[in-house]
Amino acid sequence: MAAVLISEVTASPAMHAGGDPDVALAAAGDRQAFERLYRRHAARVYTLCARMAGDRTRGEELTQDVFVRAWEKLHLFRGESSFSTWLHRLAVNVVLNDRKSEGRRRARFEEEGEDDAGGGIDTFAAPGPAAMPAAGPGDRMDLEAAIAKLPPGARRVFLLHDVEGYTHEEIAASTGVTTGATKAQLHRARLLLREALNR
Amino acid sequence: MTIDHHDGTGCDAFADALSPYLEGELDPSTGSGQTATSRARVEAHAAACAECGALLADLRRISAEAAALPMLEPSHDLWQGIAARIEAPVIPLGASSDLAAPRSRLARRWRPGVAAAALVLMTAGVTYVATRASLRSEPVGAPAPIAQGPAPAPAEDASPSMTELVQRQARLAQADSLQAIERGDQSPVRPRPGPERSTPSLLVSSADAAASSVDSLYGQEIARLRTLIARRSASLDPATVAIIERNLGIIDSAIVRSRAALERDPASGFLNEQLTSALERKVELLRTAATLPARS
To answer: Which end of chain A is more exposed for a tag (fewer CB within 10 A), N or C?
Structure first.
């Protein structure tokens, strides 16, 4: 299992709030407070999930998974970072673990495999049925669509580094590869994006 | 090869140094060695070579634009799906068979019954919650009649009767299983003398009854989930539905094979577990499908 970006250690109840009363209420089981937290943070979590998955529909499913997981794990939130940071890292973990689970499901049901296993390849991935918006015929591809078409390994590293601001050390720890590999993936992603955007 | 050359070799060296340069790993000093690749040398080459200069500018622009990408919005409110899931208790269906210590033959006989009872309790809850959520989100065909007298009971009030029904079924299954245990206690595993001693054929028939009850419970839940999915089919992504159906076909094949093998060897604990496991997987997949968010 990949190392996680958050530490799920037991916290004292007094530490739950992290300065946000809704966090403390939700940790105590208040679903209305949790819904308010969802309303405040849904867009950011969805943005991460949709981009990492390269698919808006899958992004919506993953967003739901993140909040269900947050509900289950909220009692472990120590309040050492902001709730937003904790939730965001939880979202990263859910998305990364989903990729591993997806791989297992594909193997189980003998679906066709994805195009890379973290090592990266030199071509763009084929878009899924609900892929992020792509450019029309004759249009130059925009950055959002180009990112969605990156190979999954390169896309993950590019999004986590250039969009979300994680360091190579953090990305390497969470994805179980070396920093050398994440740097290579990042550079490859940028070159592939340039190629797509300049077509 | 040095990066200072503005020919092919200089461009190759520039390309090699580009990633470390962008990562801020190069020495900022000017550097004077033949192979030194400092930041200053990379920048000097980029300034002198139009192609490499454009490459550097493009990669910087891509990173800057990526950091400024706007937030995205989901196509619909996802809270309903989240609420349905956090209201329903989740019991890991396969955990007991995967993690537990090796079981005795006796334990294997009653496990499916208890698992089915737990499963029915859980999945019926999920089905109920998902149905309720689904119905809430779907347009109503006819206007609701104006209430006369006391307001009608909310939809939630209907839940106890369904829950009671399910609990009753689960209790019956559990009772069957417990009877099987009691009979099994007197089986060849721990033989006891006396008139109450059960025969192996009795044991087999009680196991058969438990298996039949389990099968029936799974069948009911599968039918319920199928109905729910059929109702939601128009709002689900056809590609996703196709994948689910394909995977269900694989599971159904496993169920058919397990049943055929059980007909030949009805007392086999292993085959019973295989069948139960396949049924569990089917219910799990259907449950996932039933709670999928609507397509955008």
So the answer is: N
